[in-house]
Amino acid sequence: MATIRANANPELLAWARKSLGMSVAEAAQKIGGRDYNQEHIEEWENGTAQPTVKQLRKIAKVYKRPLATFFLSEFPTDFTIPRDFRRLPGDGLYELSSTLRTQLKRTEERRELALELYEELGEQAPEFPLQATLDDDPEELGGRIREALGVTLVEQVGWRDRQRYKPLNQWRSRMEELGVLVFQFADVETSEALGFSVAAETAPVIAINRKLRLNGRIFTMMHEFVHLALRQSGLCDIDENLARRPEEQRVEIFCNKVAAATLVPAANLLAEPVVAARPAEAQTWDDDAIELLADKYSVSREVIVRKLLTLNRTTEDFYRGKRQEYKRQLEDAIRQARGKPGFESPAVKVVSIDGQGFVKLVLECYHHGNITLSDASSYLGVRIKHLPTIEQRLLAV
User: Fold this and answer.
1) Beta strand 181-185 pairing with 205-209
2) Which CATH number applies to 1-65?
3) What whole-number distance in Å separates Cα of residue 263 and Cα of residue 155?
4) Residues 353, 357: Cα–Cα separation, whole Å
């Protein structure tokens, strides 16, 4: 069987190694131990030889770079923390963990690759169509977002009766149809980040933490979508009680309000029989009613209670009590789920992590002859044999 060589950019191989301050000897030892020596590294970096796809995957792991980085035609601007991703919760600058930094770098490089792929197809990346300001009415903006995404309430309610992942996948695919790259990540703790967004006129990015429950991912994704409309990138954790700069606090609260207005429009919630039947001055709500509404709109119970508070249908004390209750229950569920075995096929994992939009873009470039089968395999980080299954997966989502 012929060995498949990776058509990696030699200059990027050298750049990635040097960016870590790693010597050729150290790189050779980390990549292959006794199997590779300095000569192999030097040949790959001067272009006289190419690593195999398997070797390149190991290189990407050692250099802490996405595989796709090594196929770019130009050097990516090495990662610096965007201004909007910095916080001052106390007296000092909030320091990002190495795992979150790596994820931010990976996202930046995937976006650069997506823009290159659009160029290969001779197409312009779609311009993001929505623009908003902090002075907009949240309910009115929520309606504009629903209209742009083409989601009716009847359609949204119908999703909950289908597959478990249907609501998340549908909201995500509607955003991708507008040219948004929607990624997921799993190696960052939810205590540090629930999601983040990279605002741009073309190919903006939303990334959400897979450690969240499904309804939490939907709300976070919508929160980040509002950031895109504001043209403000953000590293978000949704919690309105954190200490932040006043201007950042205003943005986060606004994004929460608009996300809730989009997912649970006020007029529709007030018209729900379980809500309309209760006196306006009612202050507490039973768990069954909250569960019913949360399930119908595919949002968390906290979103429903918070929305009732916004509409003056409950009290601040009731909301805070429920919020603490839900937080404890979520922490218990996370502890119980930790360490449990799980398996995802490569096709399921690729589409889940990289999103339909990015995966379709890669495969479309391959089918148009702009990239090779080996390139497509490398960009998606899977073996060639999995590509047909990935295409079938896209048709089934």
Assistant:
1) parallel
2) 1.10.260.40
3) 12
4) 11
What is the band of 88 on the pLDDT scale with cuts at 50, 70, 90? Answer: very low
Task: Assess contact for 235 and 272: CB atoms under 8 A.
Answer: no
> What is the domain partition of the chain in residue ranges?
1-65, 266-337, 345-397
pLDDT digits (tens, 9 = 90+) for 123-140: 999 999 999 999 999 999
Place of tokens 């992942």: 165
Instruction: Give, as one character, the DSSP assignment of residue 92.
Output: S
C-alpha triplet 142, 144, 145: angle, nearest 5°? 65
| pTM of the model as a whole | 0.79
Q: What is the pLDDT of residues 184-202, one digit of tens each?
A: 998 888 888 899 999 999 9
**Pair 51, 31: CB distance under 8 Å:** no
Distance, CA of 219 to CA of 351 (rounded, Å): 20
- The tokens for 226 are 């509002």
8 A C-beta contact, residue 206 and residue 175: yes
- Contact at 8 Å (CB) between 255 and 231? no
Q: Exposure of 35 by Cβ count < 10 A (0-12 exposed, 13-18 middle, 19+ buried)?
A: exposed
Phi, psi at 234, each rounded to 5°: -160, 150
Strand 195-198 and strand 205-209: the pairing is antiparallel
Strand ordering across the sheet containing 234-236: 181-185, 205-209, 195-198, 234-236
Give 219-253 as a DSSP string: HHHHHHHHHHHHT--EEE---TTS---HHHHHHHH
Rounded to whole angstroms, how far apart are CA atoms 349 and 185? Answer: 11
Q: What is the radius of gyration, based on Cα positions, of the chain?
A: 23
Alpha helices in 160-213 (DSSP H): 166-177
Residues whose CB is less than 8 angstroms from the CB of residue 300 and which lie 6 or more positions away in sequence, other chains included: 213, 215, 216, 219, 294, 326
What Cα–Cα distance (Å) separates residue 100 from each residue in 104, 193, 221, 335, 353? 6, 8, 17, 22, 15
